[in-house]
Each structure stands twice: as C-alpha cells, then as structure tokens.
Design a protein that fits this description.
37 helices; five-stranded parallel sheet; four-stranded antiparallel sheet; alpha+beta; disordered C terminus
Length: 1428
Amino acid sequence: MRQRLKFWKKQQSSEATTSATPTRTTDAAIDAAAANTMQGVALAEITTIASPDISSQTVQNTVILADDVLSTRPHPASRAARTYRRQKHGLGVGLTPLKAACEGVVTLLEAVQTVQDNRSAWNELILAIKAHLNSFEKQLAQLGINDILEEVEPSLNSPVEEYLNDVTELLADILTESGITEADIKANKLTILVLVQRVGTTKLEAGVINEYRHRLEAAQLRIMRSLILYIASSVGDSKDDAILSNLRFRKPGSISRPLECADGTRVGVLAACKDWSMGINTPNILWIKGHPGGGKSAIASSLVKELGIKKDRLGSSFFFQRQNATTMTTTALWRTVAYDLARHPTIRKSLATKMKKEEIDLETPNIDILFQQLVQDPLTKIGSISIEQSPIIIIDALDECGGLEGQRSKDRQDLLRTLDSWSKLPRNFKLIVTSREEGDISRLFSRTQPCTIELSTGEKTDTQSKQDIQTFLEIGFKTIAERYSGTLSPDWPGSRITEELAIKAGGLFIWASTAIKFMDAGEPEEQLAQARSGKGTGDMKRLYAQVLEMSFPNPSVQVMQNLLSVVGTVIVAKEPLRSSTVAQLLSITEPAMKHICMGLQSVMETNGELRFHHQSFVDFLLDPGSNVSKFNISLDKAHEAFATKCLKIMRNELRFNICDVESSYVLNSDISDLESRLESFISPQLFYASRFWTVHLETVSPNPKILDDVRYFLTNQFLFWLEVISWHQLVNRGAVILHVLLKWLRTYDQEDLVALATDMPRFIAHFSIVISQSVPHIYLSALPFVPKRSSIAKRYGPQYPQTLGIEQGGTPNWSPALNILSGHIGMVSSVAFSPDGRRIVSGSYDATLRIWDAETGQQLGSSLKGHNQWVNSVAFSPDGRRIVSGSGDQTVRIWDVETGQQLGPSLEGHNDRVLSVAFSPDGRHIASGSSDKTMWIWDAETCQQLGSSLEGHNGGVRSVAFSPDSRRILSSSGDNMVQIWDVETGQQLGLSLEGHDSWINSVPFSPDGRRIVSGSHDKTVRIWDAETGQQLGPSLEGHNDRVVSVAFSPDGRRIASGSNDKTVLIWDAETGQHLGPSLEGHDDWISSVAFSPDGRRIASGSYDKTVRIWDAETNHQPGSSLEGHNNWVVSVAFSPDGRRIISGSDDKTVRIWDVETGRQLGSSLEGHEYWVTSVAFSPDGRRIVSGSGDMTVWIWDANTGQQVGPVLEGHDDAISSVTFSPDGRRIVSGSYDKTVRIWDVETGQQLGPSFEGHNDAVNSVAFSSDGRRIVSGSDDETVRIWDAETGQQIGPSLEGHNDGINSVGFSADSRRIVSGSRDQTVRIWDAETGQQLGSSLEGHYGGINSVAFSPDGRRIVSGSSDKTVRVWDTETYRQLGSSLEGHYGGINSVGFSPDGRRIVSGSDDKTVRIWDLQHATSVGFSNFKLFK
C-alpha cells in the first residue's frame, strides 16, 4: 500500500510542479478538457446505475474525484480542467467540497459492499463517512454558513485539506486495487459503469480500512472543532449580547401581537404571501392593503408563524398601534429589526463592532442614517444566502405610525422614506407591509411598485372572504354556546343566522369580532337581536352605536361626562394608561371608573392598560357625522381637558426633594433603592403629566385657568419638575418639552412669561450633566452659577438662600451661542432658515447639502448629494417644500425637502461656477448668479430658462436676491457694483449702486423692499435706497476683514453681517449703530448668515465646517461691562486695594469705577484738552496720574476728583505712558517726542534731564519694584532699561521685535521684563542680562497694545487689536485657557487686580470690562434637607 501511496504522491507532486510553470490556458481549452473528461458519462446511464437516493450530481462528483485521483497528465490544462469542473459542479472552498467528496466515496463504497472480504470494516467505514456527510450537510444548512466559512477559512484550511488528502489516498488505494489505470482515463473508458464494476472487485486489508476510518474521523473532528470554536467566540460572545441588547425595543408590558387568523380562514391570502416570499424575481415589498377591520393585522400575525420568522427564517415583525405612537416609533421599528437580524453571524458581528466603537448613535433623530447603519449596511454585508433563508420583515398597521397626527407626523414621514430605501435593496431582502390605503402611503407605493394584495370589503367582498368570516363567527359562537351550555344549543345561533351575519360583516373581521364581544358581554339572545337589526353591510358606525346605547342606556349627566372624559383621554394619551392612572388624572372614583370600563369591554381592552380593540372605534368617536352626537369626541376639547388635568397633577404633587434623598454626595445611579423610591414618590399620573403636559397644551387656546397653572409652574415648580425629569433619565427631552411651551406662549402673546420660559431650556443645556447625574446638585451646583441677570437667577435664587453664593465674578448673561451643527467635512459656504423656522439648510465645499433641526441641531435625513463640486449657495422655497442650490459644477439643482431627492433635471447653462441662487417670494422663479458674469432666471416648475441671461457686470455675479414683490432682482459683483433688474423685461433699472472699494459679496432687499444692504471685501456694510440708489448714512464699520454675508431681520430693523474676521455683528438698520457684542466662536472665516423667520435667532456658516445658531436677542456681556465713555478707552488700572478702577479715554476724561457694582464713582475727571492716553493710581491709592495727547501730565485726588498741584509740562509731543514710582514720590512719563522724563510729585518739577536714546516714539514706561530702574518700549522696535537716578541707559537695547513696541512692564521681583509689540508677539526678557527668556508668546492675530505681569509673576495678560484678552503661563510660555472674548473693538489696556484673581480691560468699544479668572467648583453637602 505504501508503494501505491508513494506512486500517487509522486504523481501529485509532479502535477503541482508542472502547474507552477506559468502557462496561458484559454477558457476554450478548459472547456475542451472538461468535456473530454466527462465524455461517455450519459445521464441515463448514471440514473440507471445510481441508487434512487443518490442524485446525478453526486454520481458526476464521483467520476470527477476518480479522475482527479488517477489523472497523471503533466499539462497544466489538466489541473485547470479539474478547477473548472469543481467550480461548475459546486466543489468550491470550505465544506461544500467535503460534502461532494463524501458523497462520491459513499457511492463507490456501496459498490465495494458487494465484495465479501472485510465486509464489517467496509460497513464501519461507510457509516463513519455517512455521519460526516450528515454533519457537513447540517452545517451547510446553518444560517449564514457562507459568511462563517469565509471568516473561519484560515483555521479550516488545514483540517479540510487533511480530510481531502485522506479521502484521496483512500480512493487511490481502492482504484489501484480495482485495476483502474491511467490508460483507462487516456482512452476515455472511465464511465460510471466501468467505475462501479471495477471497484466491486477491490481487496483491501481490514487494518488498512480501519486506519482510513480513524484518520477521517480525526480530521472531521478537527473541522468541527474549528467551526464550533469560531461560532462560540463570535456568536456566543456575552459581551456582544450585552451591547446588542441596547438595540432591543422594550415595548410596554401590555402590548402583544394581534390574534392570528382563525383556523381555516384566509388560507388563500396566506398561500399567496408564502409564494411571494419564495420568489427570486418578485418585488422585495409586498403591500397588503384594505379598509379598517379587514383583518390585515391578523394576517400579519399569522404570517409570522407561517413563514417561520425568527425560527426557521431570518426576519422580524413590528406591529404599530396608534395609541402607542410615542413608544412604537420608526426608531423602535428599525432597532427591533436590527436586533432580530443579529441572529445572522455576519450582521451580528458588524453591528456589535460598530456599537463597541460608538459608530452608531441609537438616539439620533436622523432616521435615514439610523436605517442605513442598523439595517441597510449590515444586510448588504452578508454573503450569498438561499431564498429559504433570506430575511423577511413584517410591518403591520403602517397607517397607525405617528398616532393621531397621521400623515402630518414626522415619524411617519421618516418611516416612508426608509421604506423607499428598502425598495432599492436586493430582491431577496423581503418586506411585508399592511396598511389602509391612505394618500401618502399610496404615493410611496406608486413609485416603488410593490407586489400588492387588496382585501375586498363591502360590496366587493368576495366569496372566500365571506366564508372566512362565517368560519370566524362559528368559532366565536361555539365559545359563547359552551359558556351557556344547557341554555343555548351547541350550534347556536344556527348556520342561517351565522351566514346572515357574515354577509352583514361586509368583509370586515372587526365587525364580526366586535359583534362576538358584544354578544358575550350581555345576554346573548338580546345582543344577537341588536346585532341583526339594521340594514346594509359592514356598518361599523351602527354597530358601535348599538354597543354604546346598550352599555349605557339613559346615562346620567355625570356618567356621560365620565364616559366622554375616559374615552377622550384614551384617544389623546401619548401612551396607554392603566384604569387607575386615568381615574387619578380625571378625578373619577374607582366604582365610576369600573362602571365605564365594564360598559366598554366590547370595544376596549380593560385589563391592564386601556386600549381600544380597533382604530375604527376611534374613527367612529371622532366622526361628527356618526349620527350619535352625544358620543362624539372633540380632539381640541380632549386635549384641553387633559392639559388642565396634567397641570393640576403637577401643581398638587411636585415638591422639593420629591424622593427624600438624604445626601448630595451620592449620584442618582448609586442610590440602592432608587426603583422603590420612584415607585413610592412619583405616581404614574405625575410621571405622565411631567412628560406630556406641553404636548396637550400646544393645541389649546389659553384661558384664565390654564394661564394661572402655567404661570404657577414657571414661577414655582420648574426645579421640582427637573427632579422628576432627572430621576427618570429624561434630561435630554426636557429642553424639547419646554420649547413646545415657549412656542405656545409666543403664539398667544404671553410675553410676561416668555423671558422666564426662554431661560429654562438654556438652564438645562448649560447644566445638563449636573442635572442628569444628581438631583441635589440642581440646587447646589447648577442654580448658584446661573447668570446673574437671567430670569431664573432672579426668580429662583432668592428661594434658596442657604445654597452657594458667588461673592465676586460670575457670568451676568447667557451666551448667545445656542447650538453648533457639525457634520460637514468641508467648509460651510451657505445657510438658510426654512420659512417656518424649524429647519436650516447648509451647503458645503464637501459637495453636499444638509438639513438640520433648528431646535435640536440634529441632521434630518441623509445629506443631499448630486453636485460634483462644492455647493456655494442654498435657499428654501417660500412654501418650505423645496431647496435650490448652486455649485462650482456650473449647475443649479432643486431638491425635495422631505425625501432629499433631486427634483427634475439639473439647471444647466452657466459657463462657470454658480455663486448665488434665490427663490422668488411667489415661488415661481429661481435666479442664479455666476462667475461667468451673468445672471439667469429659471421657471421653478419646468426648470427652463426664462428669456436671455442678464448681462452687465464686469465681474462674477456673487449675490442675487428678489424684491419682496418678486418683480425686481438685485445682483452684486466683483466689479464693486450693485445692479437692479426688472424680472419681466430683463432690463437694468436705474444706475448701478457704486461706493464700495472692492468686491460686493452679498445684497438682500429689506422686507419692505425700500432698502438694500450690501457687504463687501472692503470690510464695510452699506445701506442703500432701493428707489434712488443713494447710500443712506455712513458705511457701517467694525469688521476687521472682508464682509461676506449680510441679512435683514424679518422686521427690517436689524442687519446681521458675517466676516472673514470670524465674527457676526448686528447693526441697527436705522442708525447704523452696532448692537451689542460681536457673536464670536467660529474658528475660521464666516461664509453666510441668516435670520430665523421670527428674528430671534441667527444662523452662521463657516469655513470651520460648522453651522452655529445664535440668540439674536441676548444682551451678551462676557465679564462685567463698565459703560459711560463716549470714545475709545485707551488706558485702565486697578487701585491698590482692588476696589476701584480708573479709565482714560479719547473722550478727554478720566473716570473712576466701583469694581463690585460697576457704577461710576463721582463725576468724570475733566481738564485735558486732548485724548487721555495713560492713567495710573499712586501706591497708596490716594492719587491718580493721567497723561494726554495735549502733551501734559495731570495729578488728581482719587477721592475728590480734584486736580492736585500744577500741570506737568515739558514734553514736545503727546504723552503715551505715565506711572508712579513704588514710593509714590515720582512719576515717569514717556512721549511721542522720543524721550522719557521723571517728575517730582510734590513740586511738579522735572527731575534731571530727559532720557534720550530712542529713535522713535516712546509708547510705554514702567518702574522696577525698587524704583531704581525704568524700562521703556518704543516704535524703534527696542526695549531699553534706564538708571532712574542718573538717566543713563543700562546695558544694550533689548532687540528682537519686528515692529513697534506698545507696552512694557517689570515683574514684581524686577528680575524679568515683558514687552508687547505690533508684531503680534509678547516677549519675556531677563532684566539683568537683557536676553530673551524662552520663546515668544504667539496667538494674537492683531498687534499687542498692552501687557502686564500678575502680582505673583506666574502669569502675563495681554490685550490686542484682535479684540481678545489672553493669559499666558510664564514658565511654559503657553496660553492658559481660552481667549477672553467679548469686546467688539480693539483692546488698548489690560491689568491684573492686586490679588491676581481678576483682569481689567479697556477697549475701542468705549467700555471697560472686568474678567474673573477663578473657576468655581461644585460643593457636596452631607444633608440635602438643609435647604428645606
């Protein structure tokens, strides 16, 4: 045997060596080789000889294996032919070739059994290989086996190859012993007849046979072990179980799958659905549609069982219910589907991996992205899968998604978009949808063309449906008869009446079901008579009326009121409620509630949560034409009643420390008995009211009672309500709930409550982490740090006097930044609000558009893709249903806002980039401006160009805008001009508007069409008269870089401008004055600004790839602002005790301020004839020195404000800097006359000669702490140190700056000097050696105007023309924290307070600001009840 194996291996080795030689083999050669090998194998012959249990494919595999074993032809075509046959007949990689090999060996061994020798050994070998075959077949039938095999291939390769080698050696022995040779193959004599006959004569020893069996068993065991280890590690991973469990939708306990079809009913429909599910070429969506009550849900429920979903077949099911619309959402649907699909190993691994990496946001409101990440992407990752195992999803009651809002519901709109996406998946991914035939659903399926089954009802009811309902009735009547055994006959009420009722049902199973429940709820014969009365078929209204009339005959006023209150509450409730909760909410007694529930049991589930059996009953109650007016429900009244009850519950049950926690040191999550506390202290009705009160309120017109309750909540219970929200981990929803309230207050002009309500979402946003983690810290760590001027601080601060208080510092106002919208991967070039203010669209250099929720900042739907280059401009249509975009790809495109799909063809015609687009206010036209210097007008419906292009500009058209009446168009250009055009004629109207010195980037009309605003590269904003073309007033100046976008507020009273200086400014459109501070926060150029329709928000887009939303009304003042000067504040300083500040201004005055109150102390110090350039306190704080452009130095009494002594005169040019010596006896002054002078404070005389040496103006001087040296900085770019006694320069000049030096100062120990320069750097020098210490301090993007050391010498403060204050670490030479921003003019002077905790700054914006450098921290208290 060993010789034979040696010979076989030699042949195999020879073949492998030969095959390694690169030889080109054509497909034709492979086909020919394969044909030659298979010649003589007739299918009839195979069928005749083969066992009936063995397929022809198996016999072919047997011949192929024999050929493989014995063929010794050296030509590579031999191996190519075998590869071809393996591929052709399914003998690929993995378990499939093993299965084929086993089948082939068994076929041969069955023939060997005819030999008597060693029959027992042969039988054992056959049984072993058959067992292997069975195990391989089971594995191949496993869900997702192809993907498993692909994943585990590296570890399977070795045992699979070993098994195949053992099989091959076994066959080699058998064939050699049977006398089959290579010559038989060459002569093409190896037919199945020859093979079987020859093998029957083989003779092998029992030991050899047993050895093969053991080897095969060992190899098979290793194969299975590799599979089991993989499956155990990948599918059975408990960590995956834990993370995937987050997908699971935890539906309310009372929700269960609808009842299945009764036995023997809907057989034909179910069979049609099963046939569709097995179709390879059928549409991948099946729509089962029909009227309410037609049995759609029962069919869906039955299909779960019939199709073996989650048992035999990969799949999922979801049953929408209108009364559970807040929990059974589109998000819940796709999370459920993803969880169920994770049974497939590939999907499981994909989802678990992404969720571990936090690449999937399960809370995103963007359903399109959620669908893509949870369902679409994982499905497309699975490998080949049989139609029997392909996934199938069932969605029942699509029309009930979104609750009572129906087609208006965003949730339903989201779902329809994802179903549209499903229709684009491969056809083997199946989806069954049941629903009513409503408009939006019909429109969707008219596009996607699903397979459709319509359930006939009414006059169209088919015979089969009538028979099915009759069967259903017979089953129900049998149950009733059994309950009344001895009273009713077993076949009650008889076939004739049953058939009569089946006809009356008109194909509506809900009619039959309600009738059965109705009869079962009372005396059967009497109820039956009522059900049989009346005419027509399928009359649900009459049946429901009969149910109510019989259940509540002659109701009292109180009973009727209770009935309507209960059914109204069940209809409008946002989630199902138990009868006890409804009773508490409505203040109904338990017996009265039980009476109502018993009367409604035919139409409502009364055990557990209250739910109507079918939505058709709700339709009946809401239908004014139901002819039973006393049972009619008004949704508005139901909401009003419910809102009133919710407010009453909160007023009665909300309280401080509602869960009676004892310590603030323990986080919410660490309270061991939290669940029992929540159950004990927060009632179900309070929990419901706290979540949904504003939802009911928003549909209600205010009345005195509701307004009083709302006012009470806002002024007394907000923090108590936050406790409930925090305990139940709903802080993220809190702001959404309050935004609904805020909108309601504004709608009904309740302005006295708006300010307080506006602060509440801000409070949640700023302190969300604290509120989420610890209820006590709502009071301890959030409330104390609310901005001092906020309505919450004023209202709630005094209510908790024993909590923390801020003695100094603190933020006076909320930041104007409301949200940052991130997602674009390229610069944001354009932003626009939708007409209703609920959405924002942004266009980007990443070639996409994105739509955002203006309240939450979440992206809505997928990005809008289609442009091939960057998007330059976007705009909403007046109805908010379309968006227009212009791009660098020279096209204009129109998009559907809801679907995100492009509408119609691209608008093509421009020869260069499209820079700007706009819709006309009447929605009929679109205007586009381009770098090709033309403007085009398009028909918004047909997408056709109207007339010729509008030409006249000599540069690219950078902005276009329609007038409010749609009759005129504005255009601005790189030619520095604005032009006005007639829309109808295309002619220019009047002369061009000229005045800007550079490109004009943006031009809109005012809302009344009478004015035009323009923003330009020349850094200015200008306002023009739209009729005369004349500029109105002076240019609006304030930006430090190009103005790229401008917008009018909706009332025309304000203008917003965005600039490449990274700021947004707001201007008074009448006076041209700058309103409030700059809106700062973007990290790169601003590209676009837009007001919201209500004028309360501004959106800005930036090159930093973000969109930001700002509060346009917030009087934002970071740091305390001291206002009073009428011109630039040039110099500021703290008093030695830190309680006062002095400021000198270009308005020629010096002012003294109280640091704590921000109030001016006394009158302004007046006397200088020109601007005050520098001020300083004496060391004892009793005197003030001031220097001026009038070339004089004045000394003032700090308490009286009176001038002291004579004016110090002698300089020949403006004084730039003054300060006292440390002993207060001398004053040093620096001047534009290039000199430094020292003065005697008492006599006013100059001491010694002037210090000369600088070659340009001296801008700054300072004494050392011992008073022996003076440092000066000059426009000659040097710092010099002087001997204060002799006036001689000490050492060489300190050189290194590349521009004039504006400010110098000594450290407290006089060992270091700091200098700030117009070269935008701060430098630190060794005062002894004159060498620079460390690197320059860089970060400002404007000249440095002022620098100072902190009292401890560890920090330096700098103020710059870039409007920021920065603090630096003197050891690391790095900036500490963020820049201090708030000034909207260049900063001229900065200084530390004596304790180093605050900084004062003076600015061109005419204000002095105080900044607190201390960081407040939370404090824990051992007893939270301290504040009761």
